[in-house]
Write a structure and sequence with these properties.
The chain has about 110 residues and is an alpha+beta fold. It contains one helix and five strands; from the N terminus they run βββββα. Helix content is about 30%, strand content about 40%. A five-stranded antiparallel sheet has the order 1-2-3-4-5, covered by helices on one side. The protein is elongated. The two termini are about 25 Å apart.
Amino acid sequence: MIQLKKYDAYFDMITPIKYLNNKYSFTVARVIDGLHCIELHTSNGISTIEKGIRTAVDYWESEIEEINWFNFDMTEEEIADRLWELWRRKWKRILIMKFILFAIIH
């Protein structure tokens, strides 16, 4: 069995803002730790957030929601701040609950 690896979460600007446009689809940026991911996408003027959890080496389960806060005038720092906030809201609580459960069992 292949072990899935978790590492310290980090922010990754995948497509620099200067290359974005409303004609094509882009993965803009993400916060990822190997097992959990929050990604910002834009496609034909519609922006979405994808919240994913890795369940196998080559498979992610995701939920996608449309957002209205992203625009091409944002700085990389503003995008990072938003994604880190979403990360904390989505995954931090889950990770803390897993830690507490592990502590109770052991």
